[in-house]
Design goal:
The protein has 77 residues and is of the alpha+beta class. 32% of the residues lie in helices and 32% in strands. A two-stranded antiparallel ribbon has the order 1-2. Strand 1 and strand 2 form a beta hairpin. The longest helix is centred in the N-terminal third of the chain and has 25 residues.
Amino acid sequence: MGCIMNTEKLLIIIFIILFLWLPAASASDGNYFISSVKLDMTVNDDGSLLVTEEIVYEIEGFIPGIKREIPLKENQS
């Protein structure tokens, strides 16, 4: 009976490892590039800036998402 419990625990551990590994493996099945970018910038009367961007991505395969960060200096928002 102890051997059966150990086998069940081992199978559960293997299943959990495979479950956690598969999404990471499939996440790298695609590729993408930016085919076009349009920028519209307006300086308002108060000196603030309004920026509108349109970015078109060409995606091949599976991409779970694209993250884009804009680095800011201190005191910027």
